[in-house]
Structure formats: C-alpha cells, structure tokens
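Dear H.,

Thanks for agreeing to be a second pair of eyes. The structure we're designing against is below in token form, covering all 258 positions.
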C-alpha cells in the first residue's frame, strides 16, 4: 500500500501515474475503464474531478460514486487513489471516505527533477475563462486559444516554479502547452451541455505520468487508442536539486488559495 508518493519513491522506481479527467458518469465511464485496463498496472490513479454526473439538481448517489471509483482503481491496479474535486463534485469527500484521498483544490505529485500540480481548475480564473469562451465562441479556433491562455493565467496565479508542470481538467480539451509546461487533460465523455457544442471527439483522452515524461493518450469514441504523444518533462538546464524544499515552500504559499 502506497501511503505517500514521495520524491524518493518516484526517483527510485519511476512508477506510472494514470490521470483521468471529466468522466461524467455513464457518459464516459466505459472509456475510462478501458483506459484503466490498458494502462494497468499503475502505481496511482488520479481523478481530476467530475467523475459522476449530477442528474438535474440531484447529484449521483454515494453508492454510484464509490462503485465507479472502485472499479477504476481495480481495473488500473492502483493501490493509491487521489480524487481532486471538480465543479460537479459536491460531497466527494463524504462519499469516497476510505476509498480515495479527496482534495478540494489541487494535488502535488513530486518527482526527482520535476513535479506536477494537478487540479480540476475551476477554482482559478474561471470567470475569465467563461467570459473569453462566450465572447469568442465555444467551437472556434479562438476557443482553444482561450483555453491555452487560461492555463497560463492559472499557472501565474499559482506562481509555480519552472520545474513544475500544471495539469488541468474542466475544459474538456486535450492540449499540451509545452513551452509553458501546462497540460489540459481532456475528457472521456461526449458533449455534456448542448449549448457548448464542443467537438468532443477531439478532446477524448487521458495522460500518463512517469517522473521524467508525460504521455498524452488520444482515444476514439470506442475507447481505442489512436495516438500517443510523449512530452519531455525534465526542466531545461542542470538537474534540479532540493525539489522537496521547493514543493514545501509552494505548499505553504498556496495554503491560502481559494
């Protein structure tokens, strides 16, 4: 049982971390299970929010939530599960008690040379993102520009060091902004709101992290792997030392974040 994903553990064994985002219940659970099975075994499973879909004004029951997360953990072989709450996830901590470590805003995954801050993202600069998308349209090329700029704004808001990647959910986009070290983790579901009219087939995918690299997996509507793109995670220049201290200082600075 992995209690803490420490920097030493990552450096010595370089485990694979599976990150799934925006499953939205029945909409994408089948694809998520296929992805978990394909990548098994992984050391840890990180769910970046919006795993269960609210039904009208009533959220999915706790039993449905627990069943979905436990199935994903079982299929992936993960012994450590982190659940980062999304904007559809009121009550996650109560429902997933004893099954996953539930965090409200972000989770930091340290490594030997790099680190990753994983968050659903809706708590940061959300108003700016929504105004940008409503102004430029949700399906235009400019909409992706809004998403990319939003990721950069979130990164600046959190004042992340250059050695740290930011991994975001929420937008249902699968985009890698490598120069700014931001990854939008895509989604595993179809269009959720008809007014958004997103081409959801372009956003289908998930990511796999292993210390020195990040792999972006794009899938088709049937859940089959279409392509895999590897991004070098190592920061430029010399090997970063004392990353644990950097992460500690960052955590102290972020404690007051919304």
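And this is the sequence the design step returned. I haven't edited it by hand at all.
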């Amino acid at each position: 049982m992995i209690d803490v994903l420490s920097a030493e553990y990552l450096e010595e064994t370089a485990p694979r971390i599976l990150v799934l985002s925006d499953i939205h219940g029945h909409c994408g659970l089948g694809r998520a299970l296929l992805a978990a099975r394909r990548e098994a075994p992984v050391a840890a499973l990180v769910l970046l929010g919006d795993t269960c879909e609210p039904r009208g004004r009533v959220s999915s029951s706790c039993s449905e939530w627990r069943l979905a997360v436990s199935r994903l953990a079982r299929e992936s072989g993960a012994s450590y599960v982190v659940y980062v709450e999304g904007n559809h996830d009121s009550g996650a901590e109560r429902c997933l008690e004893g099954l996953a470590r539930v965090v409200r805003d972000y989770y930091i995954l340290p490594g030997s040379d790099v680190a990753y801050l994983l968050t659903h993202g809706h708590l940061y600069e959300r108003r700016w993102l929504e105004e940008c998308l409503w102004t430029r349209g949700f399906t235009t090329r400019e909409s992706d520009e809004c998403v990319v700029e939003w990721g950069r704004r979130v990164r600046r808001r959190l004042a992340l060091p250059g050695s740290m990647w930011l991994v975001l959910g929420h937008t249902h986009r699968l985009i890698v902004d490598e120069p700014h070290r931001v990854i939008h983790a895509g989604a595993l579901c179809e269009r959720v709101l008809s007014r958004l009219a997103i081409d959801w087939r372009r956003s289908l995918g998930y990511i796999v992290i292993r210390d020195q690299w990040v792999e972006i997996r794009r899938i088709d509507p049937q859940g089959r792997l279409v392509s895999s793109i590897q991004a070098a995670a190592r920061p430029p220049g010399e090997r970063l030392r004392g990353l644990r201290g950097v992460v500690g200082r960052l955590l102290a600075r972020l404690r007051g974040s919304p």
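Two observations from my side: The longest strand covers residues 225-232. Residues 1-12, 237-242 have pLDDT under 50 and may be disordered.

Warmly,
E.
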